[in-house]
Amino acid sequence: MKLLVIGAHSGDFVWRAAGTIAKALEDGAETLVVALSYGERGESGELWKEDPNRSVESVKVIRHAQAQQAADIIGAPIRFLDWGDYPMLLSDERIEQLTHLIGDFEPTVILTHSKEDPFNPDHPLAFQAVQRARLLASGAGVPSAFKQIDPPAWYAFEPHQPELSGFVPDTFVDITSVMEKKRAAMACMGAQTYLRDYYAELASRRANHARRISGQKQVLFAESFQSQVPRVTDTIF
Length: 237
Ligand SMILES: [Zn+2]
Known about the structure:
Blueprint: E1 2-7, H1 12-26, E2 30-35, H2 45-50, H3 56-74, E3 78-80, H4 92-105, E4 109-112, H5 123-137, E5 153-157, E6 171-174, H6 179-187, H7 194-214, E7 222-227
Parallel strand pairs: 1-2, 1-4, 2-3, 4-5
Antiparallel strand pairs: 5-7, 6-7
Helix pairs in contact: 1-3, 1-6, 3-6, 4-5
């Protein structure tokens, strides 16, 4: 059980997967969060509003501290790649860096952005980076010249406007036991306070769906995901 969570910006993992990460840790999994950028230009609006004259570097420092604090509350190690945002750009070196990271960590599950997000230029790019690096790290199914791992299961986490991003959830994770940790992690993200209520409400709504689907009445908060590749199991049950 090794969970790798890759977000385009340093706050993405908090809103979309903090509960699932905390739950995985509770279940004894090893986890790693990767922030491809700090979201210093496109997802730090409140910091820029506070002081329009501050430097990009100072925003990065604050965003780093906030995301580190959120990751510490959840108990997950986090790495910052500082690729820059709005626009994030891909290069051969960055794909190689991500491929090595995936190969070194050997995740059994990867969570990242959805393929589409018409409201965000960087999230689909993160999807593409992860898609390519995951394939390269797992040898695309055939023997290859470099180290390869078994292809990890791979899910998209929920985008901000799911219907408009082609996101159809097929997996719900019960995060009831760790919801307070998610709330505490969300509270660390001072640059995006408007999202706290929204994602707490979303967890409650997704739990309603999860209860209706499964009959599991104990689910009070949930996070939803969409699998990107079929799962292979040894039983239909
Ligand atoms: Zn983002």
